[in-house]
Amino acid sequence: MGYDIERFVGYVNEGLLCSICRDVLEDPLQAPCEHAFCTACIHGWLVHHSNCPEDRQMIDVSLLRPLYRYMKNDLNRLQLHCKNREFGCEMVCSLESIDRHERECEYSRIPCSNAGCTVQIERRNLDGHLAVCEHRSRECPNGCGYTVLGAEDTQHNCVAELRTELELLRSEMICRVEEAKHEMESRLDSQRRHMVQKESVLQNEIEELKSQMSRMMSDVRSLMAAERQHRQELEQAELEKREL
Fold it and tell me: Where is the TRAF-type domain (predicted)?
């Protein structure tokens, strides 16, 4: 649907009206036959038809194009009243900037930000409404530190709330202690396994060193025996030399 033509100030060219809804073009598209439509209007039309609603020429969604630049400029320059005129807004601005204004308009009706509140209030009156809204939240006046809704004031019990909070904190603390305990046990087990592996490696190295030492001692004894044998042979040879 387009913009209600009654909102516009001054004359609006016929070529800037949607051929379907007859309001001023909103988010316009143009057919090859140069007839223009609101995007929502022509898409809805083509669900049930395959031709232009003006001259009945065959058209398809793929053939629709943006409005000519000069027509788009003429459209954007049109002046119109804010949609909140009936609520008191007197703003008149160009079509190009109307959406931005209406998003920020003080007369726009917006929902209350408090959970559970269904009231729609003008933006300019929102602060006043929030101050008295029965769904507003505030800190407990008795000093327990809890945030309560106005509608829950009669049901709020400081002692019960604090007891519940204490139980939650105790449960959380127990869980954290158990987690820390499991983590420490896991670390200790890991370190214990590492130490056992390291001890096993060291023990193997010691056994290897002992084996090497044993072989070296055996070699030394063999060398000493060979040396004694060699000395005896030398002495025997010296003795025989003397006898000769």
Answer: 101-144
